[in-house]
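Input for the complex:
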Amino acid sequence: MSAADPTVFVQTGSIEEPPDAEAVDLTAPFGGGTLPNPVTTAAGCAGYGRELAKFLPLAELGSITTKTITAQPRAGRATPRVAETPSGLLSGVGLQGSGIEHFVEAELPWLAERGARVLVSLAGESVEEFAACARALNGQPGVVGLELNLSYPNADNQGLVFASNPATSHDVVQAVREVADPELPVYAKLAPDVTSVTDVAKACVRAGADGLSMINTLPGVVIDTDTLRPRLAPSGGTVVGGLSGPAIKPVAVRCVYEVHAAMRAGECATVPILGMGGIRTGLDALEFVLAGASGVAVGTAIFNDPTAPLRVLDELREALAARGFARLTDAVGLAHHQN
Amino acid sequence: MAHPVQRQAEIVELSPVGAYHRLVLRAEGIAGRVLPGHFAALAVDRADGSLLLRRPFFVHRADPAEDTIEVVFAEVGAGTRALARQRVGDLVDVVAPLGTAFPVPTGPASALMVAGGYGSVPLFGLADRITEQGGSVGFILGAASADRLFGVEQARALTPDVLVTTEDGGYGIRGQVTLPLTEAMRAIEARVVYASGPTAMLRAVAEVCANEEVRCFTAVEQTMACGVGVCMSCVLPVVGEDGVSRLVRSCVDGPCFDGSRVRWKDFGTVPPDLEGAAAMGGH
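Predicted:
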């Protein structure tokens, strides 16, 4: 080696700037429009917001999804209503609530005053009942969308839930879309325990759904080996509850993944997906985003940590920044890319 | 109801007391807000989410000067087992204070405290408050066996009027707390009875109080999932001020209820006259 060799050696590349989480654009597609960020609460896990407001400013969430509201007051199921399971919770509350009239008069104005963007979860035992609830929300303050809880027994179909088949899901969405304020996105919330969640998703989108929420709880039973009886009280002839929490997350991610794949393949018109089922951390939320969700709902994790929705939002922002994403939307569905 | 805060609390003491564990937690801004009958909800497994639900425990003592609260718990399952294995210096995620506290008489009054097992935990702070106001207290502390009693010495330090019952007769009167109840109420001319313990005991105490026409406040123990009022798990049938019965949440509307308003015999059912019961037909 010659001492006269003039070659100069340098480090190539540059040390990257530390990711600036605050700079990540979290604007989230919602229906035909957007919300400031992708995080909401899952129906039935945040009440009507009053209790959570003690722990976090509701207006900082993308939206707050109410517990499911029905036309008439419902007493709910007998107790015990819950059983803890490994990484999960089996629950059967029976949609206890005071009905749509009470909600519109007593709860919604309170939420609107706090600047909360409210996604109202609705259910009914007939197509007409869904539509009546939707109509009652037209022109009301604070409402940014409707989420139809299709996992509700259909009185006209032997008590099978609407979500169990594409045709009944279609009918509910269509009826609500016809009467609801055209400005309000209508989301259909789908059940995972169906032969093809994609077929139900397609039917809902055909009927005019502006978005899809996935997933509702999975039906389950827990038996107490001391009392030798089911842990949930028999109520209306059932001891079945809905399983939620981290235990169901892979099922939920699968549903989002399959439906997003169908949209990419052109089998189903593209609408935003709101992903939920076991989200406890920002990385859980990122999984849903990568599978195809442009919004995420935090549910059962709230029972563990009342600040979970805001914490998940912060963690998701940091996770996106750490991976070099400038925008949330750049990550939506990325897991489907071939390379 | 209370105005709860969420804190990472430091364990400053964790020691056995009879069949139970005494846990002292230090966290800013909780102790000064605690009233007798309030509870704390502790996360037992924050690391991986395998045990999701918080465990609710009555606050036994609150010391605002030290920023500490004390809870007492029994090891009954995986969550309380995990808690019992924590060490001094460990952090526990706490939400407190929670719930609606015991109503307290505005002036001097004679009060009888009735507890089953470690149900006595919230009654000592309450007894302090009543005696501070010039009132007097008596206690009936009962349990299945002597090791399941909690606070007998604490009670004796407050008043000579302490009765102890055990179902196996190992200590004190053989039987349940209701056995000496009527006599004890009359002996101390109780204007109010405060009861805390299992539901069957509360129901029995409330019935005696109704017969004796004495006010009765009960601290219920219902299975909770969140402790903060969002999950709707811990409901029980209660007659409202308007005369209408509803399933109300023991975590926010309770855990301290007027015993005469609780529909004890309807626990675990949805009676047809409840608001919204009609809509429950079929499902």
